[in-house]
């Protein structure tokens, strides 16, 4: 591509020499022969330009598409490997991150698609045309190149610098409106059911207006330099024509020399102006590159390292021991959510966490999934290693999580259930039907799956929209059970279901618990779902204030008894 750019840049000095030749032809006696020669030269230049610009465009776009692809993959890969601290940041909403993947890769594509080839060609043109101007009329060339070009370059670089700052601010300001749009569209059923389309649109418009008004001042400053880069070329030409005419009148240079030198300066200034017309592409690509290198170099706190990469749970997760664990969320370090908690759970036990909202139950699940590490204290796995010392990937392969609102991928039931296995890309579709059927039967899901026309090949829809709440939950349980986990975490797994769906899902969960081959930990509001637990831990303000079986806690006549009475009253009502 460099050769093509160099040949393309040679077109402009070639035109300069041809135009000087034209002046001689029109003042000579052999006009026809000279005209034929110039016409032939222009035809050759046109044919060469056709080939050269095709090669430039083809190669540069292949490079651009490859780079854009690599940027998208690199950004997405880097986002996937981040821990939850990254996604908890207010600037890293789903909408903002999705928008960044698209906008940053598009910025690279825009610059590298053809603009960078044209910019490289313009640089060669500036050098070649300036040398030509100096070679044919050095005095005029000095004035045009060294008096005119520095202000043009200064203005151009100032414009690029200001535009870089402007784009950085714009990305930050518009991320808020992008987040509103993304989250509103993803929750369109809720928006429609509440009839809040107008208020959402107003909120979106307010964020857009704030972003636009915030850009006004830096845009004004940038336009000063932009207007200068667009006009300084003509000031250079005015200076060159004035000084060149004096040199011709004084006999220091001939008219053809004046034309060649003047046009050399003209094409140099024009090329410089063209380069700075790409300033928007340069600044966007610079911002994209900075973000790409920042994100790809950002190391999550919870990750596989050389020390723990092959170190998993010694016994697959046969015991969990909380030792004086304290925890605060990274965005609110002053507020302790878990306060000095100690608890031991052995294989085969069914342990339940209950308590008021915000007391730390779900935070315990996050710690057990190792979405976060404790602020202080230690979680010991298998009585031998701290959770922070083993590979999070190998540990999570032994853990299954079923949440209140299960997330199903917009694929088939087969692929959603098989996603619970540690398989490679695209291998979910090839998992044996026997394993899938066994998992679905264990989750009490096989009856409804087998009754569907497409069976396991039924598409779940976006977020599982083609299935009922109970069906989605049972598919999520099947996905958890197919990996044969040592630890099952149930975070309000039945609280969003109707009575019949809850009964079916609860039976599936109890069947999973009955094997006594794993640790089962459940967070529950409905106490009826956990009354058979081996140990019920009552949480209050980040501490376990009561612990025991259902009968033991009821006999204590404490918080748990009050919760049981309250739910009985609710059912009576």
Describe the structure.
The chain crosses the membrane at residues 39-59, 114-136, 223-243, 255-278. With 573 residues, this protein is an alpha/beta fold. It has 2 domains: 2-297, ABC transporter type 1, transmembrane domain (ABC transporter transmembrane region fold, Up-down Bundle), CATH 1.20.1560; 319-572, Rossmann fold (3-Layer(aba) Sandwich). Helix content is 62%, strand content 11%. The protein has helices at residues 2-9, 11-26, 31-80, 84-88, 94-136, 138-186, 188-194, 197-214, 216-249, 255-277, 279-297, 361-368, 392-396, 413-418, 433-442, 446-451, 469-481, 499-514, 550-556, 559-572; strands at residues 319-328, 336-346, 350-355, 376-381, 385-386, 399-403, 487-491, 519-523, 535-540, 543-548. The strands form 2 sheets. A 6-stranded mixed beta sheet has the order 6-7-8-3-9-10, with helices on both faces. A 4-stranded antiparallel beta sheet has the order 2-1-4-5, with no helix packed on it. Helix 1 runs antiparallel to helix 3 (31-80) and helix 6 crosses helix 11 (279-297). The longest helix has 50 residues, at 31-80. The chain is elongated, with a radius of gyration of 35 Å. It starts with a helix and ends with a helix.
Highlighted features:
573 residues; alpha/beta; ABC transporter transmembrane region fold; Rossmann fold; 2 domains; 6-stranded mixed sheet; 10 strands; 11% strand; disordered C terminus; membrane; transmembrane helix; ABC_transporter-like_ATP-bd; nucleotide-binding
């Amino acid at each position: 591509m460099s050769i093509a750019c160099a040949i393309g840049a040679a077109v402009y000095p070639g035109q300069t020499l041809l135009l000087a030749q034209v002046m001689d032809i029109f003042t000579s006696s052999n006009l026809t022969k000279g005209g034929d020669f110039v016409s032939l030269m222009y035809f050759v230049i046109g044919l060469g330009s056709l080939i050269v610009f095709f090669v430039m465009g083809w190669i540069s776009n292949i490079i651009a598409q490859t780079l854009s692809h690599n940027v998208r993959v690199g950004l997405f890969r880097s986002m996937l490997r981040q821990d939850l601290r990254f996604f908890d940041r207010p600037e890293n909403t789903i909408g903002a991150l999705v928008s960044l993947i698209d906008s940053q890769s598009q910025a690279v594509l825009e610059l590298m698609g053809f603009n960078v080839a044209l910019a490289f060609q313009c640089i060669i043109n500036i050098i070649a045309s300036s040398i030509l101007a100096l070679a044919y009329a050095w005095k005029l060339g000095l004035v045009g190149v060294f008096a005119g070009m520095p202000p043009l370059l200064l203005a151009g670089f100032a414009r690029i610098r200001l535009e870089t700052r402007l784009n950085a601010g714009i990305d930050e300001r518009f991320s808020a409106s992008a987040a509103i749009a993304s989250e509103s569209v993803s929750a369109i059923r809720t928006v429609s059911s509440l009839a809040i389309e107008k208020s959402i649109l107003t909120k979106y418009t307010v964020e857009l207006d704030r972003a636009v008004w915030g850009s006004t001042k830096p845009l004004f400053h940038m336009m000063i330099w932009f207007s200068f880069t667009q006009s300084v070329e003509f000031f250079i030409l005015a200076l060159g024509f004035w000084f060149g005419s004096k040199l011709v009148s004084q006999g220091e240079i001939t008219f053809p020399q004046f034309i060649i030198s003047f046009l050399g300066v003209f094409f140099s200034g024009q090329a410089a102006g063209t380069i700075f017309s790409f300033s928007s592409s340069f600044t966007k690509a610079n911002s994209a590159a900075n973000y790409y290198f920042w994100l790809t170099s950002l190391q999550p706190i919870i990750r596989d390292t050389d020390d723990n990469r092959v170190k998993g749970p010694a016994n697959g997760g046969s015991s969990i021991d909380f030792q004086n664990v304290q925890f605060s969320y990274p965005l609110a370090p002053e507020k302790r959510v878990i306060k000095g908690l100690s608890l031991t759970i052995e294989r085969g036990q069914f342990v339940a966490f209950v308590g008021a909202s915000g007391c730390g139950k779900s935070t315990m699940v996050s710690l057990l999934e190792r979405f976060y590490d404790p602020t202080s204290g230690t979680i010991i796995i298998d009585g031998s290693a701290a959770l922070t010392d083993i590979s999070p990937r190998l540990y999570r392969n032994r853990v299954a999580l079923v949440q209140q609102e299960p997330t199903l991928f917009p694929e088939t039931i087969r692929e959603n259930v098989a996603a619970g296995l540690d398989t490679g890309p695209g291998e979910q579709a090839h998992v044996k039907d026997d394993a899938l059927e066994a998992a679905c039967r264990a989750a009490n899901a096989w009856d409804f799956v087998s009754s569907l026309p497409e069976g396991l090949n039924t598409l779940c829809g976006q977020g599982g929209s083609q299935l009922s709440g109970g069906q989605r939950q049972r598919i999520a349980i099947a996905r958890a059970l197919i990996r044969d986990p040592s630890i099952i975490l149930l975070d309000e797994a039945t609280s969003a279901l109707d009575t019949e769906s809850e009964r079916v899902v609860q039976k599936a969960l109890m069947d999973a618990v009955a094997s006594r081959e794993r640790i089962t930990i459940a967070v529950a509001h409905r106490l009826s779902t956990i009354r058979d637990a081996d140990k019920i831990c009552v949480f209050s303000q980040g501490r376990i204030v009561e612990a025991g079986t259902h009968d033991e806690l009821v006999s204590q006549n404490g918080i748990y008894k009050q919760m049981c009475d309250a739910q009985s009253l609710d059912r009576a009502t």
